Amino acid sequence: MAVLVTGVAGFIGYHVTQRLLARGEEVIGIDNLNDYYSVSLKKARLAQLEGRNGFSFEKVDFADFDALTRTLKPYNIDRVIHLGAQAGVRYSLTNPFAYAQSNLVGHLNIMEFCRHSDQFNHLVYASSSSVYGGNTDMPFSVEDRVDNPVSLYAATKKADELMSQSYAHLYRLPQTGLRFFTVYGPWGRPDMAMWIFTENIYNGKPIRVFNHGDMKRDFTYVDDIVSGIIGCLDHPPQDDGVIKAAGSTAPHMVYNIGNHQSENLMDMIGVLEDAIGIKAEKIMEPMQMGDVKETYADIKALQRDIGFTPSTPITEGIPNFVAWYKDYHNIA
After folding, report:
1. What SS3 state is found at 239?
2. Eight-state DSSP code of residue 93
3. Peptide bond before residue 206 is cis, with ω within 30 degrees of 0
4. Position 296 pLDDT exceeds 70
5. How many C-beta atoms lie closer than 10 Å to residue 96's C-beta?
6. What are the residue boundaries of the structural domains of the chain, listed by start?
7. Mean pLDDT score across all residues of the chain
8. Partners of 256 in the beta sheet?
9. CATH class of 2-181+219-260+295-311
10. Res. 255: pLDDT tops 90
11. Residues 99, 132, 153, 184: which is the catalytic one?
12. What is the Cα gyration radius of the chain?
């Protein structure tokens, strides 16, 4: 039996697939290789996977249900890790329909694929810490209300959780939603601050520091995230009548997955400067529309249920990213 990984050419999808293959799993990876960011980077990730024993890749858009089911028909899939999505808060301000198509229609299509599969066991899907909106209670808890999103991206991720809850209730589909907190590391995304800052510093350009640097993020290293994802994959929620997240007895769990440590943005920049060996020129700017001042994950539930223990501080993870970035861009 195989694991389906959507968004396999993406940052987290690539790392998850590497880990699954290393433990002997068969992995079917799908991706539409869209141009939201560098297609060459996505292809470079795929090149690290292609030819590996147990890996198969199919280029398909999961927002197209007919194409999705036709493409996956030959495979025996019993578990799904759904990481593909239209990402980015600021991009949602100018391209809202991309989010409706990928994050809403696409998520529904994946659930429908699972619902009509006789072999299906568990769907693990990506939510986001963005669902907490302007919440000021720290750390963010899965019991907090999340009905005041400050971006369309966040609204689509909350909608995904609600759709999954309804399918878990109606069809008893075991599902686990993971609210990611600022994931970074080697092979990361060019639209994220870590990459943007690094690129600008190396090119002698200033970095834009929003809210005049008065921001905090729960930066989570990608290897820790992967451990949490696969740990959840191996522990599907039980349809046992026990009350779960949000008071439901359906087989659906929602977890925060982060580093459980909120770092000051200026501290992160300092670690990055030290790793690069160059001081950044900083342009201090106001808060951007749709952004939030602070994120901080309460991960007690994930620690309790699967033993999740993030172990990578930014003083270790950021130099790892910089070393990879230099190698990828052939910087001496």
Report:
1. coil
2. G
3. no
4. no
5. 15
6. 2-181+219-260+295-311
7. 93
8. 179
9. alpha beta
10. yes
11. 153
12. 19
With tokens 């693990």, the residue in question is: 124
Element (H, E) at 259: none
Helices 106-115 + 65-72 axis angle, to 10: 40
Tell me how far apart the alpha carbons of residues 280 and 181 are, in angstroms, rounded to a whole number: 25
Report, as an integer, the average pLDDT of 240-262. 88
Question: Looking at beta carbons, which pairs linking 267-275 to residues 24 or more positions away fall under 8 Å?
Answer: 267/314, 268/217, 268/219, 268/314, 268/318, 269/197, 269/207, 269/209, 269/213, 271/314, 271/315, 271/318, 271/319, 272/194, 272/197, 272/198, 272/201, 272/318, 272/322, 273/201, 275/318, 275/319, 275/321, 275/322
Which residue intervals of 100-221 are DSSP H helices? 106-115, 152-171, 193-202
Distances (CA, A) of 70 to 28, 46, 60, 106: 14, 22, 10, 15
Q: Is 171 a catalytic residue?
A: no
For 108-165, the pLDDT digits (tens) are: 999 999 999 989 999 999 998 888 887 677 677 777 677 888 889 999 999 999 999 9
Tell me the whole-structure pTM to 2 decimals: 0.94
Helix, coil or strand: residue 90: helix
Stretch 324-329: mean pLDDT:
97
179 is written with which tokens?
């609210």
Encode pLDDT of 113-128 as tens digits. Answer: 999 998 999 999 999 8
Instruction: Write out the two tokens for 304.
Output: 């309790």
- Locus of tokens 């329909």: 97
Phi-psi label, residue 316: left if phi above 0, alpha if psi -120 to 50, beta otherwise? alpha
